Amino acid sequence: MATVTGGEGKKAAVYLQRWRQLWARFERADPNQEWDGFIEWLISLRPTLRPATWRQYRAAVVHVMDQRQVPYSELFHARLMERINLPDRKTLPARTSSTKSKSLSNADMNALLQHLGAHDGRWDRLTGQWLVFGMITGLRPGEWQRVKAFPNEGEMILRVANAKFDTQRAHGPERTIHVHIPPSMQDTLNEFIQTIQAEDFADVYEGCRIALWRATKALWPRRKKQITLYSARHQFSADAKSAGLAPEVIAALMGHAVTETHQTHYGKRRSGRGSVMVEAEAADVMRVVERMQQRNLMDVGKTPLALK
């Protein structure tokens, strides 16, 4: 094991403190507290920072990602290392949570699919598929990088590495989603996964993100709330709530450790369509229930009565 010198230890402490300060700022701007959202938020600050400050921030974040073995850190590192070569920053899509839509209506989805289908850009078709399957499965955009799909007696089984897995923020290292879609859609889902994983994921993600932004700007130039790839996950949450799924089941499907996350920060029941095409694995639901019970016991232990 490599020995950490005094100087290295001090640098690590500085990096950790700087990351904590950045994360606290991010939490005030975006209560979802997702790593992918944090990275995009940090990148959005770059035009306002001196080059030296940006390098310090980037080094601190990369250090913490490496130390904590953050899932998908390779993707996040690639995003942080990208060169900015667009001449006018005002033409870039906004990355703040206040400008992102937390719903994706049928009318908007149909308009987007028609618009994307009418264009032959490299990423247009893939972007439409990303929205459709994101809304069906509820996956985080970054989770498609490592998802594994298996056919099973008329359904597709997805094994998803939870992007937020640690001792507090996910119910386990992975979750299983049973997807009930027609055979033709199963083939398209397989094709989508193979395509998205065959290339550099950072390039695919950025290409589709920009393609979607251009489509929304063309269709709805006056809208303040932008539809993003993450909007599909919010719509999944709304659909699951309106379909009457138990909060623990929704948490299991979305990869959350507790129910409050989707109840507070994700798409609302009123925006839902009343049905979903997925089922959760019983073991995943049980892990959420156990996490909730453990947390409730800890909360009881902290009450004034328990302290007497």
Question: What does this 3D model show about the protein?
Answer:
This protein is of the alpha+beta class. The chain has 2 domains: 6-86, no CATH class; 102-299, hpI Integrase, Chain A (Orthogonal Bundle), CATH 1.10.443. Helices cover 56% and strands 7% of the residues. It has helices at 6-29, 35-45, 51-68, 73-81, 106-117, 124-137, 183-198, 201-219, 231-242, 247-254, 260-265, 282-301, 304-307, and strands at residues 148-152, 155-161, 174-179, 278-280. Helix 3 runs antiparallel to helix 4 (73-81). The termini are far apart.
CATH fold-level topology of the largest domain: hpI Integrase, Chain A
The ordered string of helix (H) and strand (E) elements is: HHHHHHEEEHHHHHEHH
Average pLDDT reading: 84
The proportion of residues forming helix, as a percent range, comes to 55-70%
Strand content: 5-15%
Give me the Rg, rounded. Answer: 20 Å
Residue runs with pLDDT of under 50 for 5 or more positions: 85-92, 303-308
